[in-house]
Amino acid sequence: MTGRILILGGTNEARVLADEAVAAGGAVVLSLAGRTSAPASSRAPTRTGGFGGVAGLRAYLRTEGIARVLDATHPFAARISANAAAACAAENVPYLALSRAPWIEVPGDRWHRVADVAEAAALLPSLGRRVFVAFADGLTPLAGSGLDFVVRRIEPGDPGLPGASLVLGRGPFAVDDEIALFRGRKIDCVLAKDSGGDAARAKLDAARALGLPVALIRRPTPPAAATYRRADALAWLGLDAVTRVSI
Q1: Which of 95, 116, 124, 228 has its CA 20 to 30 A from that of 75?
Q2: What percent of the chain has pLDDT over 90?
Q3: SS3 category, 43
Q4: pTM of the full predicted structure?
């Protein structure tokens, strides 16, 4: 592994890859957007905050001598990924996106795939009255629906939806705990994003166990230079011989 590596993070996969790169002796910077005040710690030097769009990221790549960029942001962080791909192309810096594979339905799932929160708002009244919302951004289209919402956030704050109840929690979550939460809060349907990954799937397994319908928001199209395989990202960073950390 040669040159300085910028890992765009915010996911557990990014943190693990950054730690492995440090263990391999790589010069790594892990970049976080700063949406949570106490992110999981990493062995890699970490910067927090945005770059200022494509122009700002291009300047950062030049001034910091970045040799390649691994984008391991959330699958729904479409703007960040688009900016990163554009900046890397303009600066001729190799770019790879590591994305979680989308979730796949299994027998017993009652999924209804929707394009966005607005489409979910139109669908939810036909699914139930008390909705568990597994994310806390962009919820304005749900206002005025007449439904009861329970919104999960990592940290205390405005749930972003007038009248909604707030529940705090940071994944990964256990299926039994999700089942208990849904029963305790009298949830009869779930709204989630197709973020993929094992750590965030428990809510879907709990919904299946309870027979609850799920409105699942389709993810944005991933960047052209993308892989679902963590092994590909490790190899791209020259980490084949490093002892790998489980996620």
Answers
A1: 124
A2: 62
A3: coil
A4: 0.85
Q: Nearest Cα to 101, choosing from 198, 33, 202?
A: 198
Query: What gap in Å lies between CA 43 and CA 87, rounded to an integer?
Result: 26
Name the nearest CA neighbour of 131 among 154, 197, 141, 200: 141
Q: What is the Rg, in whole angstroms, of the alpha carbon atoms belonging to the chain?
A: 19
- Tokens representing 182 are 């849904």
Query: How confident is the model over 169-177, as a mean pLDDT?
Result: 91
Distance CA 183, CA 185 (A): 5
Which residues, 6 or more positions from 236, have their beta carbon under 8 angstroms from its beta carbon? Answer: 68, 70, 96
Assess contact for 164 and 146: CB atoms under 8 A: no
Q: What's the CA gap between 247 and 206, in Å, rounded?
A: 21
Residue 195 structure tokens: 């973020």
Give the residue-averaged pLDDT of 185-201: 93
**Contact predicate 15/73, CB 8 Å:** no
- Beta-carbon count within 10 A of 108 CB: 10
Which of 28-37, 61-70, 73-82, 111-120 has the weakest average pLDDT?
28-37
